[in-house]
Amino acid sequence: AIQTKANAQLNHQKKSGRSTDSMTCAKVHSAAGSATGFTLIELLVSIFILTLLSSIMLANFNTGGASFQVENSAQQVASILRKAEALANASVEFENQLPNGYGVRFSTSTNEIIIFADLNDNQTYDPGTEKYETSTLPVTVTIQSLTGGSTMDVVYEPPKLDAYINGDKTP
After folding, report:
1. Which of 80, 102, 147, 162 has the most crowded Cβ, counting Cβ within 10 A?
2. Residue-level pLDDT at 107
C-alpha cells in the first residue's frame, strides 16, 4: 500500500507539471507520506558556517598579500644588487668618468635603495655626487636593521668584481 501511494503521488506530480526533483521542492514527501524539509534553525546554522568559512578565507587572503609584498621586495633588492654588479662589470661611465665600481646603499631611515658610482674609491656612498639611480620599496616593507649601523653599502669593483660591505672586502 505504501508503494502504491508513492507511485500515485509521482504520477500526480507528472500530470500537474510539478518537478519530481527533490532539490527543487521546498518540501519532499517520503514514501510513508510524512513531510521532510529544512527547518529555520538548520538554515541559519548553514548560513553561519558559510559566513565563518568566508571570513577565515578572507583573513588568510590578506595575510597572503603581505607575504607577497615581502617576497616581491626581496626580489627587487636582489635585482638591484645584480644591476650594480653588472654596471661594475661593464665599466659603465658615470658623468663622463669611469668609476672605481658601483654600489648599493641601504638605510633603515628610508624605503629608498640607491645605486651609486664609487668615484673616489672609498667603497662608500657620498650623497649628492655619486647617485646613479634610486628605487623605492613598498610603504608596508621597511628595513629594520642592518649589520654595522643604520646604513650599509655594498660595492662591486672590476675587473674581478671584488665585493666590499661597508668598506670591508668580502672573502
Report:
1. 102
2. 93
